[in-house]
Amino acid sequence: MMSRLVTQLVAEEPAVVLLGEDTILRKTVASVLNDQNVLVEFLSASTLSQNITKLQNAYKIVWICDREKKSEEYAEGFQYLSQFSSKVLLVVPIFTGVNSCQSDMLQRWVIDTQKQEQFIVDCNYYLQSSSFLFGENIIGNNNDISIFNYLFNTIQKNILVDPLIDISFISLDDFVTQIASLIFVPKKQVSSLITGKAVNSISFISLVKKLYDAYHNTNLEIVQDKISKSQSIPFSVQEKQIQTDIRTIATYLVKKLPAPTKKEEVSVKVPFPQPVLETVPIQKQTFTEEIPINLITPEPIGVQQVESKSQQQPAVEPEIKPALEEVDLNKEIQRIFKDTRTEQKVERVEKIVKSTKTITKKSKRKTKLFYGGLLAIGMAVGMIVLAFTYLVSGSILKKQIISFLTETATTQSLATSPGVSLIKTADFVNSQTELYSQIIELAVIAQNSVLVNLTKGFVELPEVLLRADEASKNLVINILTGTIGNTGELTEILTQSVSEAYEKLSLIQATLEQIDLGENSEKQQTVIEQIGKEIQDIRYGLEIHQELQQILPEMVGIHEKRTYALLLQNNQELRPTGGFIQAIALLNFDKGSLVSYQVYSVYELDKKLPGQVVPPDEIKLHLGETNWFLRDSNWDPDFSRTSKQVTWFLEKALGVQVDGVISLNVFSLEDLLKAVGPIDLPEYNEVITDKNIEERMEFHSEVVLVDSPEAVDYSVKILSETLAALSALKEENVQTLLSGLNNSLETKQTQIYSRFESEQSILQTLGWAGVLTQPSCPSRLSVVDCLVDTMTQVEANIGINKANYYLERSINHKISVSKTEAQHVRTIVFNNKAQSNSWPKGTYKTYLRFYVNSNSKIEKVLINGSELTINQIFQTQENGFDVVGVRVDVPIQKQITVELVYSTPLSTNEAFSYVFYNRKQSGLDDDPFSVSITHTPDIKPVLIAPSATISGNTITFSTLSLDDASLFGVQFE
Question: N or C: which end of the chain has fewer CB within 10 A?
Answer without folding.
Answer: N
